[in-house]
Amino acid sequence: MSRSAPAPAAEAGAAAPRRASAGAVWTALGLVYVVWGSTYLGIRIVVQTMPPFLSAGARFITAGLLLAAVVAWRYGPAALKVTRAQLGSAVLVGLLLILGGNGLVVLAETSVPSGLAALLVASVPMWVVLLRAGSGDRPPPATLAGVGVGLAGLAVLTSPGLSGEVRLSGVLLVVVAALLWSLGSFSASKLPLPGNPFTGSAYQMLAGGVGGILVALVRGEERGLDLAAFSTASWVALGYLVLIGSVVGFTAYAWLLQSAPLSLVSTYAYVNPVVAVALGSLILDEALTWPILLGGAIVVAAVGVIVSTERRK
């Protein structure tokens, strides 16, 4: 997903924002905008020649190990120590976010255009609001109105699957992925995660990556595996997802959570899908049909309403 590294862990463990230069903030925000928006394109290129869950599992295991190494180097090996409860929470959130949320998007992008997948995933803030409402929280009326508008946009976005332009199963997979990511995000705010957001995310990536490998084995993705059949473009895209999408993108995001107002950081939610649609059209020549343009505009506008009303709470 556009959130290629698990943001909720960072939110749960982030301290109050500290002062940072405007230039540094906007540089980091630009990285999150472009990098996380481009991950959908990267995934689409990877799955052109690589098995979905094997590639996703390898991506997050590698990224998790790299992030853990960075944590040990930057903060000392003791920073990786967690309690049993914290580890269990990180594993659960990682399975929901990485295996469920991201893994199903990877599987779906074997048949769904990257731009459409990004726009469907943009519904995550809407599902989070509904989960909050179901738990007894009372979102502002304007937020609920934004959810209603967003669901209408989501209905428009599913029409390519209903009309047969893309596989309906792929569209539904992305919707389920968004629901699982939302559940993981919501759960992360309630569970005892590690205090260091980088530590928590390293364990989440590792748990989700191992889960992806296990699902790949169940699906039989290793049968007849031929590494020589993987294209150079897929290898480059996978490396990009590991180093840039996961490690660099998440590092920038986690730093922003500690250095900039959350209302500014949260704007990635409606910038990422725009970047993804543009890149998919320019690089992969993905069609910009009226359901994608109209439904996408409605969803992005609704997410903008939700984010703006929530920041005033």
Describe the protein's architecture and organization.
This protein is an all-alpha fold and 313 residues long. It is built from 14 helices and no strands. It has helices spanning 7-13, 22-46, 52-75, 84-108, 114-121, 124-134, 141-157, 159-163, 168-188, 197-219, 232-259, 262-265, 268-284, 290-311. Helix 2 (22-46) packs across helix 13 and helix 5 packs parallel to helix 9 (168-188). It is globular and about 50 Å long. The two termini are 27 Å apart. Mean pLDDT is 85; it is low at 4-17.
Topology at a glance:
Blueprint: H1 7-13, H2 22-46, H3 52-75, H4 84-108, H5 114-121, H6 124-134, H7 141-157, H8 159-163, H9 168-188, H10 197-219, H11 232-259, H12 262-265, H13 268-284, H14 290-311
Helix pairs in contact: 1-9, 1-10, 2-5, 2-11, 2-13, 3-4, 3-10, 3-11, 4-9, 4-10, 5-9, 5-13, 5-14, 6-7, 6-9, 7-14, 13-14
Instruction: Note the main sheet.
Output: none
Uncertain runs are: 4-17
Mean of all residue-level pLDDT scores: 85
Bin the helical content: over 70%
Name the shape in a single word.
globular
Radius of gyration: 18 Å
How many H/I helices?
Answer: 14
Distance between the termini: 27 Å
Provide a concise account of the structure shown.
This protein has 14 helices and no strands.
